[in-house]
Amino acid sequence: MSTAVENGGTADLTSRKTASLINETADSSLPAAAATGPKEPPPEKPADTRRRTWVIFSFWAIVLALGLPIWWKTTSIYRAELPLSEMLDWADGKACRPAFPLRIALDASPLQEHEAQNLLRLTQHALDDLNDFSGHHLRLQLAANADPTKTAKTGSDVALTIRITPGDSIHSASSSLHPHLPILDVAYPPNSIPTQTSSSSGLATYLAAQLRSTFAEEQNVISYLLETSSIPSEHRPKGISPEVAETLSKQMTRSMKYSRTYHLTFSLFTNGPEPSSWDIESAIDEYMRPMLDMLSPIHNFTIDTQVQLYATPGVQSQVLSKEDLSSFINAAEWPLSPSIGGAPTVNFVVYIGNQTIGAVSESEAADISRSWLIPQWGSVYLLLPPSGPHVSSETLKQTVLTFTSHLLSLLGTPQSGSLPMRLSTLNRMRSADLLLRASSSLGSLARLSLALPSISIPSSVADGVAKSMQHLQMACSTLGGSDSLEHARIAEAEAERAFFEKSMVGQLYFPDEHKVAVYLPLLGPVGVPLVMGLLNELKAWRKRRRQKDGPA
Amino acid sequence: MQLFSSLVIPICLLAAQILASDYHEQLVLKPLPQSALLASFNFRSNTSLAQFENHNFRYFPRSLGQILQYAGTRELHLRFSLGRWDAASWGARPWDGTKEGGTGVELWAWLEAETDEEADHKWLTLTNALSGLFCASLNFIDGTRTIRPVMSFRPEGDHLNITMANMHLLHGVLPREVVCTENLTPFLKLLPCKGKAGISSLLDGHKLFDASWQSMAIDIRPVCPAGEECILEIQQTIDMVLDIERSKRPRGNPIPRPVPGHELKCNSSKPYHDEHTCYPIGFVAGQEWSLQQIFGKSMHGTCPLTDPNIAPVCIQAPHSRDVFTSAGVKELKDPNFPQRCYIIPENEDFQIVLPSMQHVGENAKSDTDEYLEPDTPLLYAERSFTGHGQERGGVQTILTNPSPDQEVEFVYMESLPWFMRIYLHTLQARVLSGESGHLRKDEDVVEEIYYRPFLDRQRGTQLELRMRIPPQSTVFLTYDFEKTILRYTEYPPDANRGFDVAAAVITILHADQTKSTRAFSNLRTSGLLLNLPTPDFSMPYNVIIFTSTAIALAFGGLYNILVRRFVGQDEGPEVTLMVLRRKIVAVLSKVAGKLKRANRKEKAEGKTE
Fold it and tell me: Which residue positions does the secretion signal occupy (chain A) (predicted)?
């Protein structure tokens, strides 16, 4: 009876006719069994058993060899190979240690060759003693060219030239930054030139301190960037003081995201029908263009202007308090839509109305309380209504100058130093910033692809990652140089493009309920007989082996 | 031709003014028969091309200007329309129909590009940018809805011959787009006076989109006057036909309520008319309205940017019509043409009142005193679906030339979706002549055919026919098409509503070709609603379950026959169900036995007692 259970399973398919036939044969062959209990079916031919095994085996072979691969092929998600560990290395700062070796030329033409060498050595010593941040160090060298103005123009690798001249004062040295060139003029007292043997010198210490203070802001900014980045603490430089960090974080949140090109939009809003025209073009050419030309190695600018009449500000009160300033721009009604073309827009709004800003404190100057800066967006200037329907270029002078200074601060230019120094610092700051941003984007992408195994990764993402890492490598090796900004920019753009690839999110969510609804109707009725057949066959096979083993 | 001169004269007069002033606006009110009023708003500003290329925007809107520059657009026409112009009672269309579009959104533009691919790319940029600017789904104008008309449109601006060679005309329609307030707000933002002063202060979404018919148009074209600097001109036009009774409903109580019985105006000539039954007369009294009533607000002064000598508001009505205005307004009567214009003092509210006119009594006025007789349009057109079933469809367009002595020549253009598979060989034009009165097949009516067949899921059909209709004749233009079964994901939400088919554009070519080639007039048929065979959208799951069941049945049977062994009923193992049944029977018989025994005992005890 037990064999019947294994082979036949439930015998509900039995036809009456065959049953009676079998009954007769069974009755004749096994009369004793019929008398004692349920009848045993006749023993199965071994050929039948073997055939059944083959049937089950071939069904399973088709399922495993054909069904599964097809299913796998049609439902798998394409995931391009990403260099995950390298990407995480970049994010953790292991792949690149940002270091800015700044070369400073010492133009000591009034001195003898050996005196100059000596001064150089001592100053370098003093500098190394002062410096505590390895990522940003200053290296002195003697100016090769006799004419420092030429060096400053042609030699792009030299961050600053120190030009020392004998001064009038006997006791103390004095220094001043050249307003248009990266040159520090130092006037030294005649007696302060160090001798060959002396191990320290007043002039050298003075020079070192001057250099240190000149580059202090840049150092702070770079260490701040490293600190706020995702790089773990052991790779970070020594921390900066909390007060400095706070002012820096204010500066950083104010500045716009880096872009090669910015659209500048100058808008004149008036609360009534007048004035309806302005000489903004000539005002920009006169007061802002020189600054834009100086910025041209770092940024390009496009300029457009518009006039909008009957503009109601978001705040109606006559005197604007500090809280009102943030809601002054009437975003719903004023057409300040960003320019098309991908680059960010900086808005400069001139509002002509009779509103004034209430002075926060008595000490504030009158012209400051005419304008304010809106972080990462632009700046607003309140202009008093002119007499006629036309605003002259002269009236706009103060406005455009204010906008120029606001533009510099929106671009993240450091506050101190002469303009060329500030711009070259800006270049280095932006490179470091972009480098860190690109690294952290790569890290996020790597973590995302690890966290979501069902997300598809098209090959364009892999391409973007490869390109980004290549440019990161180049940017890292040339940090402080002129090319690094361009490389860092490309790396950042590629990393962002890879991270925000549209086709990745398309199939992010594919609910399990849906899968059940699709698979169950087929797999239920087909899978159950298959699995049961296999189990029964296995059980029968074990039984047969035991029977074989038992008698033996 | 009265219509034509009536429109051309003011346009010519204004043309002289275009160059003098940078900004111009005018509202023309024209009472139409019955209780309708046509209000045409026109705003025009311009900028010199040099200023435009330097990105200095004054009256020309910056947001639109930047889009034009970025997408290399030389000329742009954008239309938002709603409703249907009732040509039978309202007559010819305003602006000769050149400032209106088919229902929904229509856009055509001339783009400067070296190749077709570049033009397509710029077109994509343009539609996407405009979509953001006007809060409309213009970004859905893709390859399947874009055509390049060959005969229908001509540039309206002055273009250099060199640029003309590289200009590509692209045309796209979104018939399904519902035009609403969110499209009006950006439209008003483009105006220098922003809807705060002048005639634009009358515009209000509630009234505009409640109109029987309305069309908002933006036309941008370069204009190069002889010997002067070229300018770029933007014209914004809003035309609407207001139902006066409807717009006079108070704002706070806009739900229409039944008129009380005693106020009902009944047609007493009906035989069943008595105090309990009434056949209402739709329109008996003359028009009576004021600006305040129909627009919901009065006009706030004038826009100070306009030339103060040009009247901002005009009304086209017979001079015998009584019109009252607020004080201080100067009236200019045109002696040759029934039009009055009003010069409004700055910063003062302007009001215009048309009182009701006596139709009976001593000084009775007739309809001719109340409004101008509508001009007969050059052509009437209506289009409808024919065909039957879920597969066979047909389109019939009826074009009527009402003129007694002039034939009319025009281009009929259709831009059909790809899922309407049209059979061009079934295209037929039959003419019903006024004098002969019988229908005949006439191949001469269609003079030229331009046909660009559809490609599945890539582009739609473009059909342009140049036709000439003899006077007093009607042409029945018919063709058949086959309805396609779409893919599951290609059906839009609410697929059972049907698919909108864009209006056909009819460009009437004036017989008098000595005039400038721009002297076109346009006409659009109404849109159509095509019903495609729509599946049940739970279909995929049904299909899965159905096929799975079939496979499972076949597989289960086959597999069981192959794998199982058949034995006698008494030889096999006991079926679970049988075991269960035997157990239940055993338990039941046990309980029954107990009960019997208990009964017997009770009886025995009772006997002993």
Answer: none
